[in-house]
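Hey, quick one: can you model this chain's 3D structure?
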Amino acid sequence: MKFTRRSFAMTAAAAAALTSPLAFAQAGQTVKLAFMDPLSGPFANVGQNQLKSWQFSAEHFNKKNPAGVKFEVVAFDNKGSPQESLNTLKAAIDQGIRYIVQGNGSGAAAAISDAVEKHNERNPGKEVVYLNYAAVDPALTNEKCNFWHFRLDADTSMKMEALTTFMKDQAGVKKVYLINQNYAHGQQVSKYFKDAIKRKRPDIEIVGDDLHPIGQVKDFAPYVAKIKASGADSVLTGNWGQDLTLLIKAAKEAGLNASFYTYYAGVSGTPTALAAGVGGPVRVVAYSYNDMPGIVTQLANEFKKKFNDDWYTTATYNGLALLSEAMAKAKSTDPVKVAQAMEGLKFQGAQGELEMRKADHQLQQPLYISEWRKATPKSPYSVENTGWNFQEVKAFPSYVSSTPTSCQMKRPG
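Sure thing. Here's the predicted structure for all 413 residues.
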């Protein structure tokens, strides 16, 4: 074969591309992820747990993953603030980190998503990908969607679709009181419940609808007094962190005899409050539960042994499973190629086969209703060492909880 100087130059360029550190995923290459969530302030206990969860999941995948890369999680304290999130994002990008993970607070998520999109437009070749593992504002995968944002959690509307499908069959649910944090997520929990239950059980009466400042209420007794006075048999709340823990404590102290339907009763601190008991069953809608068989139980036990804490954010596993599969598919760790590979990708997650929907970058996954019950020989896991855990009462396959999207995705190039 005759080689010209031009063909030799092209061959050399191709060889250089093959050996470029960002061109192909290579065994042992380190991929850094910037973790941005509150590590101080009222929700620090949640952020600290989830930081450990990401680092723990990284250790698991560093033993073996399809791309052969090593993951390193670098912590940034965004204090739950949108403005502080922009500062930490800049700091991470300045350090050369190309993958961002964040979840606590849809306000912070919207700020990060928008800033990542603008950064990538202005800095070709230095693109950043954002994995959102817990911020559930539906707008992030609808009117505010963008190519660089991928959501690992089910959004508020998806969870509400599953929760109200379950509640409509509960004959004892007749009067529901809504209490939520006064920001995007809490407002949407209220809205989506009212819309869905009107379609499915129009006889159910909504006897209260409170929105309270997020992370500022120290005593929920006045709210619980209103709930008692309303005659509610059920309380529905999207509260998380200390806002749910303190609500549960106040309900117990007031002797409130009502069932609780929640999004985040398994999050740090609340299970210990639940162990004291409340008047009725406490149920959660989520993409996993404590006694879930398979890899979840295995890793939860390992996490408990290592940290004496609970691994409840299994999106940390799904995020790294998605990334490593996409890097293997793209044969690259370059964020543009990896983002393209993640679109429409089906992969094995903690709950089985999952799919990252191409249209809006919303993960399609089963959802479960689980109930707070005493541990048993069949379900022995002890949440926060209480002797109790969340056990499945109803499973919904992906297609039941999936919701349509209005996303008009603009893709690079």
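One thing worth noting: Residues 1-23 have pLDDT under 50 and may be disordered.
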